[in-house]
Amino acid sequence: MRKQYLHLSAYSCDKCQGPVISGSLAVRENEISKETEIRQAGAICLSCGHRQNGATKPERVRHLSPVEWDPVGAIEAGHLATAYVEALNRAELG
Ligand SMILES: [Zn+2]
Predict the structure, then answer these.
(1) Over the stretch 30-63, which tens digit does the pLDDT of each residue have?
(2) Residue 25 β-bridge partners
(3) Residue among 31, 9, 28, 33 nearest 20 (CA)
(4) CA-to-CA distance for 24 and 85, rounded, in angstroms?
(5) Is-above-0.70 flag for pTM?
(6) Around Cβ 15, how many Cβ atoms within 10 Å?
(7) Which of 36, 39, 56, 89 is the most buried (most CB within 10 A)?
């Protein structure tokens, strides 16, 4: 059965060394299939609010256990978030 999972990881904030929580969503078609449609859901420092996408020291990222996430509505929100991130990236490049 197709299920969506939320993956959370934690790493140190570049600004305040506080915990940044980064989320991504992925879909599994069934129990044994690989995850597909992986997309970032956002990242934010719990301490100062800095939105830091990605760890400066990837070797120190802590991955938390994925949790099942109700796909109703969340998939669309994910697409919105993806579009938003892409728009931001374009803005930064331009
Ligand atoms: Zn911070």
Answers:
(1) 888 899 988 998 999 999 999 999 999 988 999 9
(2) 6, 39
(3) 9
(4) 13
(5) no
(6) 13
(7) 39
CA 50 / ligand 1 centre spacing (Å): 5
Q: Quick one: tokens of 37?
A: 């449609």
**Contact between residue 64 and residue 9 where contact means Cβ atoms under 8 Å apart:** yes
Helix and strand element counts for the chain (H, E): 1, 5
Give the integer Cα–Cα distance in Å for 88 and 52: 13
51 CA from centroid of ligand 1 (Å): 8
Name the 3-class secondary structure at 90: helix
Task: Give distance in angstroms: CA of 16 to centre of ligand 1.
Answer: 4
Which residues in the chain belong to E strands, given as ranges?
3-12, 19-28, 35-45, 62-63, 67-69
